[in-house]
Amino acid sequence: MADEISTLMTNSKDKVVLLRLRNNKTIQGTLKDFDIHMNLTLENAEDISEENKKQLGKVLLRGDNILAISLPDEESN
Questions:
Q1: Nearest to 43 by CA among 13, 21, 8
Q2: pLDDT given at position 75
Q3: What is the pTM of this model?
Q4: Residues ≥6 apart with Cβ < 8 Å to 24
Q5: In the prediction, which pLDDT does 71 show?
Q6: d(CA 66, CA 5)
Q7: Is 29 helix (H, G, I), strand (E, B) or coil?
Q8: How far is CA 77 from the centre of its chain?
Q9: What is the DSSP annotation of 64-75?
Q10: 3-class DSSP state for residue 4?
């Protein structure tokens, strides 16, 4: 199972991901890196929780604050 998650995350690098956080915030950004604890580095991140999007830039999110990750669809050839 861990290998599948790692593969999915690796395949999603440099793609836009959507994150739901414990504090009810929704963050969208380009996945740059991750580790075994699901700490994520995002670039061009923005808080899209409210109508007015807030630009965050480059952020590091601690894995235990992430409730859900929506990965991009894999492109079919």
A1: 13
A2: 56
A3: 0.87
A4: 49
A5: 86
A6: 15
A7: strand
A8: 24
A9: GGEEEEEPPPPP
A10: helix
Question: In order of start, what are the domains of the chain with their CATH numbers?
Answer: 2-70 (2.30.30.100)
Q: How many helices (H) and strands (E) does the chain have?
A: 1, 5
Radius of gyration of the chain (CA): 12
Alpha carbons 64 and 31: distance in angstroms, whole number = 17
pLDDT digits (tens, 9 = 90+) for 5-64: 889 999 999 999 999 999 999 999 999 999 999 999 999 999 999 889 999 999 999 999
What is the rounded distance in angstroms from the CA atom of residue 53 to the CA atom of residue 38? 24
CA distance 1 to 3: 5
Phi, psi angle pair for 12, to nearest 5°? -95, 0
